Amino acid sequence: MSEGGLTDIEKAAILLISLGESDAAEILKHLGPKEVQKIGEAMTKLDNVPQSRVEGVVADFLGVVSDQTGIGIHNDRYIRAMLNQALGEEKAKTLIDRILMTTNTSGLDTLRWMEPRQVAEMLRFEHPQIQTVVIAYLDPDQAAAVLSYFDEKVRLDLILRISALDRVQPQAMQELNDMLESQFVGARTSQSTTLGGVRQTADIMNYIDSNIEAELMDAIRDNDENLAQQIQDMMFVFDNLADVDDRSIQVILREISTDMLVLALKGADTSLQEKIFRNMSKRAAELLRDDLEAKGPVRVSEVELAQKEILSVARRLADEGEIVLGGGGEDMI
What we know:
Helices cover 65% and strands 1% of the residues. By secondary structure, it is an all-alpha fold. Helix 1 (8-19) crosses helix 4, helix 11 (152-164) packs across helix 14 (210-223) and helix 17 (258-265) packs across helix 20.
């Protein structure tokens, strides 16, 4: 649905900015950090929105509000920096504090709003068991970023612990909330929580920097070759795009730049290159082939970075339900 060419996310951003800080906070407090982040990104892109368009957005909202139960958006990054840019640091801080302090957000959920470096510093001197549960509780991209702030030996230990984790009993969850209650609103739970495991470990590994990932995987393999193979099988890597359906490939291609695609394909198998070509117009495919041939030698690190960025786009689209990715293992991600 679109009013004057606006997406639903853009309309939500316009509506919330129009409402003002207090009312926006009342709405945003019902959303998680991933949901708010998408709106925050849209806020940063708004510029000189005409009054007529604002009025149209409000009218559109009023027309569907009786059927609207939530803002259905999903993304794998965090909002604080986005709100800082859109609203200014002071307003963003006040808004986030208002959201957190007026809800039943648990200490663990509150960590999802924090910068990875802050989380790492908070965990640095905690027992490895607590570190493991907290990192397993975070979303994979944030967990990967937090792990990057630990040294190699600690990263390996935590990854092995996460892969072996299954369920966490209420007492352990309570302990974590007690640990955080001096800073965040505490919450109680009476059910065990499923955390960790090989699948989550593979998801975290997907987001870790390529150099760290390679070192960490080698260390895991030295420690437990079978576990390393299980993780590798479940990781969705760039070459796995060859197994993704054509419609999904076309959706991904609309989201990435030609320059990024050229870099990524420099290190791709011929079969994947051909799949990409088949899902482009004849003219676009010819131009891409020419760009690939004309592109001189590039650093492996540049190719890996481009591939990681494309995979990040693919995972976001999968999270939003726009595409389906078939992983290397039996499950779908």
